[in-house]
């Protein structure tokens, strides 16, 4: 592959790898990055959904089946991205699940599913991406939650995963800034997505929309190189009265 071909495939601003991107926040972030000039790879565990999402994004977008709980699969997926686009500039760590129950009643399987996806999966994704990011600098976004600072009843696994993700993100900033790699935690409140089996509807109009997080991501990428918004909390501006 020639340098010219690599640059054409990589997009005018480079390339981005987004996990959990068949729909919702991940999909909208990937779509916005493509519009902004990035070539994108998106991942999901569902082959049909991720292929359709890549088709809708269009251009050079790649849809890859990948379970973030599998570190070797992530290494292969990131290596495939680097081979296709010549490098990696943006890593958006989004894949997550929600299982909610009180500690006494939560099954071991549900606990493991949440921690293995939301926390260990984030670690595996980042670890797979660091070698490529170190070669020319870049940006890591971790999609956390206000649940990473505000515990709630029944949120044992989810709260633990997001509290842990926030800690991991803060350490990453210290570990990677000497390599010109920025790290930002995005911590939304209520977002109108399919998360935890929810089906978005008109009743979710007051919530943060996935495209709002996408716009925020692009805006952060446009910040001056000298400036790092390391943690961004995002809330609905006018939630309904209780």
UniProtKB/TrEMBL annotation:
It comes from the Bacteria. Keywords: Oxidoreductase. InterPro entries: KR_dom, NAD(P)-bd_dom_sf, SDR_fam. Residues 14-195 form the Ketoreductase domain. GO terms for molecular function: oxidoreductase activity. Pfam families: adh_short (PF00106). Belongs to the short-chain dehydrogenases/reductases (SDR) family. NCBIfam families: PRK07326.1. This is NADP-dependent 3-hydroxy acid dehydrogenase YdfG. It comes from Deinococcus radiopugnans ATCC 19172. The lineage of its organism: Bacteria, Thermotogati, Deinococcota, Deinococci, Deinococcales.
């Amino acid at each position: 592959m020639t340098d010219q071909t690599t640059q054409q495939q990589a997009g005018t601003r480079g390339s981005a790898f987004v996990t959990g991107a068949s729909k919702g926040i991940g999909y909208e972030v990937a779509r916005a990055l493509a519009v902004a000039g990035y070539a994108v790879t998106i991942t999901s565990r569902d082959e049909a959904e991720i292929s359709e999402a890549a088709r809708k994004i269009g251009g050079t977008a790649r849809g890859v089946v990948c379970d973030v709980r599998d570190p070797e699969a992530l290494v292969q997926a990131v290596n495939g991205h680097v081979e296709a686009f010549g490098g990696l500039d943006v890593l958006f760590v989004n894949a997550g699940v929600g299982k909610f129950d009180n500690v006494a009643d939560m099954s071991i399987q549900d606990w493991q599913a949440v921690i293995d996806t939301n926390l260990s999966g984030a670690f595996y994704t980042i670890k797979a991406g660091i070698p490529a990011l170190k070669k020319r600098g870049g940006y890591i976004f971790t999609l956390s939650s206000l649940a990473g600072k505000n515990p709630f009843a029944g949120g044992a696994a989810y709260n633990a995963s997001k509290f842990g993700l926030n800690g991991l993100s803060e350490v990453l900033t210290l570990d990677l800034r000497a390599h010109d790699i920025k790290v930002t935690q995005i911590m939304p409140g209520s977002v109108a997505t399919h998360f935890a089996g929810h089906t978005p509807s008109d009743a979710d109009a007051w919530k943060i929309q996935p495209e709002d997080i996408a716009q925020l991501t692009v805006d952060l990428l446009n910040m001056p190189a000298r400036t790092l918004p390391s943690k961004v909390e995002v809330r609905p501006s006018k939630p309904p009265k209780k």
